[in-house]
Amino acid sequence: MESLGYLAVLLAFLLSAYSAVAALAGKLRSNPFLEVSAQRGVLSAWLMTTVASGILLHAILTDNFSFNYVASRSNADLDLLYKVAAWWGGQEGSLLFWSWIAATYTFVAVFTGRSRHRSMISYVVVTMAATQAFFLGLVAFKANPFQVIMSGPQITAVPDGSGLNPLLQHPMMAIHPPMLYLGYVGFTVPFAFALASLITRQPGERWIHTTRVWTMVTWLFQAIGILLGARWAYVVLGWGGYWGWDPVENASLLPWLTATAFLHSVMMQEKKGMMKAWNIILISATFFLCIFGTMMTRGGLVSSVHAFAQSEIGSYFVWYLAIGIGITAYLIASRRDFLRSEAELDSVVSRESSFLFNNVILLASCFAVLWGTLFPVISEYLTGDKVTVGAPFFNKVNVPIGLFLLFLTGVGPLFAWRRTSVESLRRNFQWPGIAAIACAVLLLAAGMRHFYALVCFSLCTFVALTVLMEFYRGGRVIQRKQATNLAAALVELTHRNTRRYGGYLVHMAIVLMFVGFSGAAFNRVHQQELTVGDSMSLGRYEFKLQNISESDSPNFFRAVAAIDVLRAGEFLQTMLPERRFYHASSQPTSRVDVRSQLREDVYVVYAGQSNDGANPVIQVYINPLVNWIWIGSFLLVAGTLVALVPNKRRKRKKLPIRKLEGQPVGAAGD
Question: What is this structure's pTM?
Answer without folding.
Answer: 0.91
